[in-house]
Amino acid sequence: DAGVIQSPRHEVTEMGQEVTLRCKPISGHNSLFWYRQTMMRGLELLIYFNNNVPIDDSGMPEDRFSAKMPNASFSTLKIQPSEPRDSAVYFCASSQQRGNNEQFFGPGTRLTVL
Amino acid sequence: DAKTTQPPSMDCAEGRAANLPCNHSTISGNEYVYWYRQIHSQGPQYIIHGLKNNETNEMASLIITEDRKSSTLILPHATLRDTAVYYCIVRVSFDDKLIFGTGTRLQVFP
């Protein structure tokens, strides 16, 4: 089992550019979560999906952020336009079903916006 | 969700038991206690969870007080690889959200 796969692992971009982060959940998992981690704010939940449907996006900071899950094996988190304050590590996690199950986290994408 | 309180940091000698406390005095009857840890530069990793009974797995033991207002995660024989930030999270059973606090930074020394 390859675990949760995220790409790219590192991204450096300039302010104003579009950034797309990608995630492949563990096969058979039907819940997917996007988190952001910074020194100032810690680990925050941005959005999560169940069966490819967004369930709660209340953590998405603003309209510049959007997330999609077109099928059970792929999700994207897009930032357009990016700003320096978006610099963070973005984690994707998946779990087997809603409710009382452990979440498996990917290795994260370290985003730096100059 | 009920909030948790953890000490910001702890030290433990290698080979000794590490006991990490967590306060969750406002926990509700349907809320579980979860523990995750995050080793430097990696994604968080699930350790264990419980409702009211003590739990044990290959990684750790979880001791929950009878009134459920606090719990202790026990790593029975800490190794240097257990150095990490440990998060105690209270979570409603049917709610998918994990709300991470600031956790306890455990440093295991030789």
- Class computed from helices, strands and strand pairing of chain B: mainly beta
Distance between the termini of chain B: 38 Å
Q: Give the low-confidence spans of chain B.
A: none
| Main beta sheet strand tally, sense and closure of chain A | 7 strands, mixed
* Molecular shape of chain B: globular
Largest contact between chains: A-B, 24 and 20 residues
**Largest beta-sheet characterization of chain B:** 5 strands, mixed
Task: Walk me through the structure.
The complex is a heterodimer of chains A (114) and B (110). With 114 residues, chain A is mostly beta strands. Chain A has strands spanning 5-7, 10-13, 19-24, 31-38, 42-50, 53-56, 65-71, 74-79, 88-95, 104-105, 109-113. Chain A is globular and about 35 Å long. The model of chain A has no long low-confidence stretch (mean pLDDT 94). Chain B is globular, with a radius of gyration of 13 Å. In chain B, a hairpin with a 4-residue loop joins strand 5 and strand 6. In chain B, the strands form two sheets. A five-stranded mixed sheet of chain B has the order 1-9-8-3-4, with no helix packed on it. Classes of the chains: A mainly beta (114), B mainly beta (110). Chain A binds chain B through residues 4, 31, 33, 42-45, 48, 50, 55-56, 91, 93, 95, 98-100, 102-108, and chain B through 32, 38, 41-46, 49, 87, 93-102.
